[in-house]
Amino acid sequence: MTVLASALDVGGADFAAHREAMLAKLDDLDAEHAKALAGGGEKYVQRHRKRGKLLARERIELLLDPDTPFLELSPLAAWGSDYTVGASLVTGIGVVEGVECLITANDPTVRGGASNPWSLKKALRANEIAYANQLPCISLVESGGADLPSQKEIFIPGGAIFRDITRLSAAGIPTIAVVFGNSTAGGAYVPGMSDHVIMVKERAKVFLGGPPLVKMATGEESDDESLGGAEMHARTSGLADHFAVDEQDAIRQARRVVARLNHRKAYADPQVAEPPKYDPEELLGIVPGDLKIPFDPREVIARIVDVSDFDEFKPLYGASLVTGWASLHGYPVGILANAQGVLFSEESQKAAQFIQLANQRDIPLLFLHNTTGYMVGKEYEQGGIIKHGAMMINAVSNSRVPHLSVLMGASYGAGHYGMCGRAYDPRFLFAWPSAKSAVMGPQQLAGVLSIVARQSAAAKGQPYDDDADAALRAMVEQQIESESLPMFLSGRLYDDGVIDPRDTRTVLGLCLSAIHTAPYEGARGGFGIFRM
């Protein structure tokens, strides 16, 4: 084996400083995650409990197989917006009756579980993950439908939710709706379009229009139960396939439905793999607080791959990009990791070849980001950096093996694209609290604007206000810095979550297991034209 040798000085001052900076960021992250866990706040949580109802995450916990993990996705959705952190929806991947499923649960303590623009984005992302990985979908439903004040932002794009449910079913991916409370107006189509529907006695309310709307539209007098209650749908309309006496019974029946799905993974689970040779706790001390300081990504790789065994590809060529082969929880992976931040022509060509090799061998790719982008300057432009960077982006764009991305440090400019950023459809993308991503670094962006403004003033023969320039630069730097932070980006669903570095191996293992539910095959050609 080619076990990586670590040069990390875990007793040194640098390690201690990096660890302290990372722990401070993790404290900030925990505080934001706590907001999502709090839902609508203590008042509404207690009101929900007094009605004898379980909270969204409690329902999920009962649904899952005992002692199995739940990989929550997009927990910071809506962070930095006017909406509650978490966007009134919980999504994630968990194991039910031995089957990996994509689970969504409305949080009724947040405005009755009503869907806002960020809930919609979060739900659509969950559907993407389910479709790509062929994961059965279980919807734990209790929602008042659209958040009406924001209807202009969700009505038209919101139709994609129902489109996705039917496309999942058409692709042979099971869809299950468990209705615990309201599922009204457009929300009625969630159970209406699902393969299997379970409703809770005297709790589920599924109708296109409630009694007030029916009264206004037709003059008819009606009540919730006769109009859309669980017993009516089980006995009369036939919408309910299973009638549950309470929430626990509904969850029990959902587990039995999954047990009878006859849903099989495309690939057998690998044998249990040996853990890395190095302590994952040490991942806290690798990334500097100042991302201008480089770090060796091999130290990260050594702490996440099986037995710390890594066969490096082209180690002497294009040295600022580390590429090589490893296994992670028994699954083969090809790894691309930025070393010194900048991508040159050699790194770009090396990456393109490596991606082609992974596609020839049907091996998933893991991208570990810490890049400031592709190199600029006369020498590099003349050397063909544009066409070589385009070659790498071409390879990433047309690769057909599953991709995973983790933003550890910087992820700026077109380097973010070449390393399979969100726009390039990685199956999963996560960030460490240390990560930053933007079109370029704050100082560089502010400096560019300053130079352009100075040149414009000179061209017009006008004096340049240096004090105003300094104020502008400071303002721009502060704005770009705040907009490049992981919680800001995660709030907009540009990643699937901000994770503790120590959890990286576990998170990637869960993702790789989910990925291997669906068959895949690498591209054997079809990469388009590589400009040489």
TrEMBL record:
<feature type="domain" description="CoA carboxyltransferase C-terminal">
    <location>
        <begin position="279"/>
        <end position="514"/>
    </location>
</feature>
<feature type="domain" description="CoA carboxyltransferase N-terminal">
    <location>
        <begin position="22"/>
        <end position="273"/>
    </location>
</feature>
<dbReference type="InterPro" id="IPR045190">
    <property type="entry name" value="MCCB/AccD1-like"/>
</dbReference>
<dbReference type="GO" id="GO:0016874">
    <property type="term" value="F:ligase activity"/>
</dbReference>
<dbReference type="InterPro" id="IPR034733">
    <property type="entry name" value="AcCoA_carboxyl_beta"/>
</dbReference>
<dbReference type="InterPro" id="IPR029045">
    <property type="entry name" value="ClpP/crotonase-like_dom_sf"/>
</dbReference>
<dbReference type="InterPro" id="IPR011763">
    <property type="entry name" value="COA_CT_C"/>
</dbReference>
<dbReference type="InterPro" id="IPR011762">
    <property type="entry name" value="COA_CT_N"/>
</dbReference>
<protein>
    <submittedName>
        <fullName>Acyl-CoA carboxylase subunit beta</fullName>
    </submittedName>
</protein>
<dbReference type="Pfam" id="PF01039">
    <property type="entry name" value="Carboxyl_trans"/>
</dbReference>
